[in-house]
Amino acid sequence: MKIKEFFKRMLCGAAIGTAMIIPGVSGGTLAVLLNIYDKLINAISDLRKDFLNSFKFLLPIVLGAGLAVVAMYFPLSFALKHAPLATVLFFVGLMLGSMPKLIKDSAKLGFKAFNVASIIIPFIIVIAISVIPAAVPDLGTVDLSSTMNAGSYILLALVGILASCALVIPGVSGSMLLMILGYYQPILDTVSTLTTNFGHSVLVLAVFAVGIIFGFITIAKIIKFLLAKFPRGTMWAIVGFVIGSFPAIFIVFAGEYGYANVTPIEIICGVILAVIGAIGTYLLTLYEEKRNAKSSQKTE
Q: Across the chain, what does the average pLDDT equal?
């Protein structure tokens, strides 16, 4: 692999990694926008069958994502602490800008009456998950300290599997799922304690990573199968997940931060940032489509 290509994939991984730690933003959507989604799914699902080539493709992406998670911790924590709604609205805008392309790609496969269920069921699932913390408050209480028991490590690995959805399924935010389950801030805090409690922090992150890797491989195989056998229904289901994530993130925000302390200035700034984010990702998708069209013409 050329050095230039290696670093290009690292940058893609960094973008995906950043998305994974931002509530409501989907790493899978970023992968689609960066035009590496199909290759990523194939590399993950074929890891055992074609280990060397899959490993070569995934290594820079994983490195980039890992570095981004560490590097973005403090800026993201600062933004969420001082202007949480504005920060969240910006990334909602980023997701909103990718919707036209997602719907357009799904529409190319056609739409039938029963596909309404393909949209509604995932929508309901996302909304239902988002209200779980309010229905079961104790679910959000998570302890990742050095006193955690063996059961907590097993549960952490299972949470990692859920978080892997952020990369494999476009529109599904792993960070939002982590917020819902109460693991978002504890995992970020674990990253920050690498310098003070290195051994335990590495163990916690390693267990979490094992869950993510297992989830990547398992869910990627399922998605690959569904896209091959039921492409139309699967694509419209993805649309349903994305649509559901918009109200869900505001439900999660209400439980995590609340709206009582939100100022009018923050709302105005957040709306402006959302518009900027939406326009930015929309223009990016147009650019990618034009570039792919030119590449296709050259190869013909």
A: 81
